[in-house]
Automatic annotation (TrEMBL), chain A:
InterPro entries: Bact_response_regulator (IPR050595), CheY-like_superfamily (IPR011006), Sig_transdc_resp-reg_receiver (IPR001789). It comes from the Bacteria. Keywords: DNA-binding, Phosphoprotein, Transcription, Transcription regulation, Two-component regulatory system. The keyword Transmembrane helix does not apply. The keyword Lipid metabolism does not apply. Transmembrane segments: none annotated. GO terms for biological process: phosphorelay signal transduction system. It holds the Pfam family Response_reg. The modification 4-aspartylphosphate is found at residue 53. One of its GO terms (molecular function) is DNA binding. Residues 4-120 form the Response regulatory domain. This is Response regulator receiver protein.
Length: 127, 416
């Protein structure tokens, strides 16, 4: 069965690379470049995984994360945050808001794929 | 040891040149008859030879003890340690000074990283572009059979991103290389004004002449290359208008004369010249011989004027320490606060701070007056006899523990 990921990333070229890498593995990738419609799209699509940038136009990744976790239907949804904001404070904020995994840019493709595999192979746990 | 060759002086006082060399470099303590002989040969007071370097060494050792929490009887034996192990004492003192220098660098960089919107945006841009390039380049390198359509697209993406990365990096380097102390990369109208005032060394001789009108101010503003924005020119005009009013009411020469008779206490000066304390503080800040700093904030607590003084750090971005007397008088027009202040985290420099709050608006019924606070920062003279107020620059770089005014953790204590 095809797995479905919603990728919320405003950097076109990063989104394109991720779309290629996951698409090659059989993932269906829904890409959003704006945070404002992300929660609605995720509610409609009910993906297996959400990949979320932090600094987004419209609505920040933290806001999207909090809204999703406030909804019991998405309490266990694997959410991988990809951000250039790697400060300890940002990690803490993401963890408190219920992120499943936090990765700092620039990451390697192997790291990103490993995170995707581990998050979708088992029950996600916050790291 | 000006005027004497080392070997001659050693011969006069009856010691070897190498031993004298050790003394000169604070590697041997000097005292007793030898001290008197050398002082006599040089024609100076004995204390001149011992106080400066040795006091600095012992102060650095005590500072190191303070910073590392050394307690007990050993703390009081810094001079004995310096005497018995002068080489090790120098090593420790130098390490302490080096730490202080590095802490200052960290403060400045952290302040910029945390609060400088330009720097934060530039770093984000760099990291994001690097992420795109890294990911795309890996795909190109690792994928043996890549469809031509994808391959071409990724080549175009890498080309775009590498150009973007080069531009961002160049822009960032240019920004970082601009030394804020000498060539401020003015990114706000307030910074343009500060650059303008610094270029004039905060002195405007033309405005000290009685009866200066708006034309002189306009000429100063129009001829200032630092004032690029309309907002900066507006702020500069306001500052200069205040200078002109102050100069008219209390010329620099007048206050200079009065200081000679009543000393440099602002309250005594204000009473003597029958002028508001705030005006006296501003005038004193314009006297280069006092080496004073000045901060002015409006009713919101925003610092709207700053004249820097070495050792008293005012954050370039974000809010300062709420314990500064500047803020203590805010909302209390007429109140004047004088405090011996020690700013922690920057070599623990001490200052005499005098702050006053002034009403800016015209009085009217049932209207809260607009006020502003003025704080003069003078280098501390002599040893403190009374209590000292321990303040910081801003919470993020302040090491003070259990501070009732702390807004956020310190990177120096908590690493966050």
């Amino acid at each position: 069965m095809t797995k479905h990921v919603v990728l919320v990333e405003d950097e076109t070229n990063i989104a394109e690379a991720i779309r290629f890498l996951l698409g090659r593995e059989g993932w269906r990738v829904e890409t959003l470049a704006n945070g404002s419609s992300a929660v609605d799209v995720i509610r409609t699509v009910c993906p297996d995984l959400v990949m979320l940038d932090v600094m987004l136009p419209g609505k920040s990744g933290f806001e999207i994360l909090k809204e999703l976790r406030a909804d019991p239907a998405f309490a266990d949804l694997p959410i991988l945050m990809l951000t250039a904001r790697g400060q300890a404070r940002d990690r803490e904020m993401a963890k408190d808001a219920g992120v499943s995994r936090f990765m700092t840019k620039p990451f390697s493709n192997a790291e990103m794929l490993e995170a995707v595999h581990s998050l979708t192979a088992a029950t996600p746990t916050a790291s | 040891m000006a005027g004497h060759k080392q070997a001659d002086l050693a011969a006069i006082v009856g010691i070897s040149a190498s031993y004298l060399n050790l003394i000169e470099h604070n590697r041997r303590r000097i005292g007793g008859k030898l001290l008197l002989n050398i002082a006599s040969a040089l024609g100076v007071e004995p204390t001149t030879l011992t106080e400066g370097a040795e006091a600095a060494l012992i102060a650095a050792l005590r500072e190191a003890a303070d910073d590392t929490g050394l307690s007990g009887p050993e703390v009081g034996r810094a001079d004995e340690f310096a005497g018995r192990f002068p080489g090790w004492a120098d090593v420790l003192a130098n390490a302490q000074r080096r730490i202080a220098t590095l802490e200052r660098t960290i403060e400045a960089l952290t302040d910029r990283l945390a609060h400088d919107p330009h720097l934060a945006a530039s770093m984000h841009e760099l990291l994001t572009t690097a992420a795109a390039i890294r990911s795309t380049a890996s795909i190109l390198a690792d994928t043996k059979t890549l469809e031509p359509e994808w391959r071409d697209r990724f080549h175009i993406n890498i080309d775009q991103d590498s150009r973007r990365l080069a531009d961002s990096a160049q822009s960032l380097v240019g920004y970082l290389e601009a030394d804020p102390e000498t060539t401020p990369a003015a990114s706000s109208p307030q910074e343009e004004v500060e650059a303008f005032l610094a270029a004039h060394r905060f002195q405007f001789t033309v405005l000290e002449q009685a009866g200066q009108d708006e034309t002189a101010i306009q000429d100063l503003v129009n001829s200032a290359p630092e004032l690029k924005s309309v907002a900066a020119r507006h702020i500069a005009r306001t500052v200069l208008q205040q200078v002109a009013v102050d100069a008219d009411a209390l010329p620099i020469e007048r206050i200079r004369d009065v200081i000679e008779t009543v000393g440099r206490d602002p309250m005594a000066l204000a009473q003597h010249v029958h002028q508001p304390v705030g005006r006296v503080l501003r005038r004193m800040a314009a006297m280069p011989e006092l080496g004073a700093g000045l901060l002015v904030c409006d009713r919101s607590g925003t610092v709207i004027f700053r004249k820097s003084i070495e050792g008293f750090m005012v954050p370039r971005f974000g809010a300062g320490c709420p314990l500064w007397p500047l803020f203590a008088v805010l909302g209390n027009p007429g109140l004047v606060v004088k405090e011996r202040v020690e700013q922690l985290g920057r070599g623990n420099a001490e200052f005499e701070c005098i702050a006053a709050c002034e009403v800016q608006s015209v009085h009217s019924y049932n209207a809260q007056p607009l006020v502003q606070s003025v704080m003069l920062i003078l280098p501390a003279q002599g040893l403190a006899t009374g209590p000292r107020l321990e303040v910081g620059a801003t919470c993020r770089v302040c090491p003070r523990g259990n501070c009732p005014a702390r807004r956020e953790p310190s990177i120096l204590n908590d690493g966050v």
